[in-house]
Amino acid sequence: MAKTFAGARLRRLREDRAVSQIDLARQLGISPSYLNQIEHDTRPLTVPVLMRITEVFGVDPAFFAPHDTPRLVADLREALPTRASLHDLTELATKLPDVAEAVIDLYRRYRQTDDQLAEVVGDRDLVAGRSPHDQVSDFFYRKQNYVPALDEAAEELAGRLSARRGEILEALRDRLSTRHGVRIVREDHDRLGGDLHRYHPQTRTLHLSLSLRPGQMAIRMGAQIGMLEYADIIDEIIEEEKFDDVQTQILTRVGLASYFAAALILPYGVFLATAERMRYDIGLLTEHFGMGWESVCHRLSTLQRPKARGVPFSFVRVDRAGNMSKRQSATGFPFSRSGGTCPLWNVYEAFNAPGRVMTQIAAMPDGQRYLWIARTVIHQHAGYGQPGKAFAIGLGCEIRHAGRLVYSAGMDLDAVDGATPIGPGCKTCERLTCPQRAAAPIGRRLDLDENRSTFIPYPLMG
Fold it and tell me: Model-level pTM?
């Protein structure tokens, strides 16, 4: 079991309550020197002492839960690219996580202010850097892709619907009809003007494209139920975020409704139990629940309910050009926000073998290793000669969870040297000698000499 060091949080809690070290030590039944060592992270916080602390201060044990250090370090790396070493950033994230969060929050506020200024002066290039899609993606990233209020509401409704396997579409149709008077109309893709679905509030008609597969239809219908029945929960979540841009509010509402739909169709308890039983075999899960690969992968990345957690996954969707259209994470994988991602990542290799499941043990510069599963998905709704959509879906977890996955079969999970060295993105990656580097790290000077050439594309000053 990992040791818990939470000295800074304990010291802050003690000082906020105006309790001296001597008084607290006496109440905890330990020596002042022992308490001093705990507060300076030279001794770990043991379970008996933790329980006594929660009783004395009346706080939840989760207050002392370890922070997501890799995630904090990645965000700090972007906020402070030239002001601190990786070691210093790790030290800050580990020992003063609240300060690290404050720095990151200030940086985000700076970016938001910069965007607003760019909007005022008409600099569209700057505005594009923080689009509504970026803000919604950041929102789910901060939530670690778990929204408890919606998840629990969806599971409760799923229990009342009591739909058996293969009956979910009919159950959703009946709910929309009997509860809301909404009629479902299937129409040709062209008659909908290229839309996949369209809802008309005036006539209470939900038009669904004939090109939608059953799983996609279920998501659209479930999202409409979320919009109609749980708008108060969705609106409250959006209000808490204080988005001042209407487009961002709309996209967040759509994202939350889709989240609700997935939680309704794949209710938490049932889905988690099935995933554990099938060892997270995505192919088996898609067949069992009648949902697509992307939907199942996305739902797997949301299973972080306290006391009933699944494997904490990171989820990503990219295209051939490296554009990341979705990124959510229940773990600390440091997605890049400054430029592209790593070309050595197996998510891109998936395009070379469409439909085949690719696996990779990848090591980040800080030594953290992940098991990644990647596969392509293709959305083809148009006729012959018309472009469709092709994406690679990636699902990754820390190596310590990999043994729970069927995809780890035959792998040596302890072989550190066998992992593929990847990074968060060239502009923030610490692998200075990587021959695949496409950009120099932020804040580093190039070691240029007109009289020599190097195999490394961006040689750096020592």
Answer: 0.74
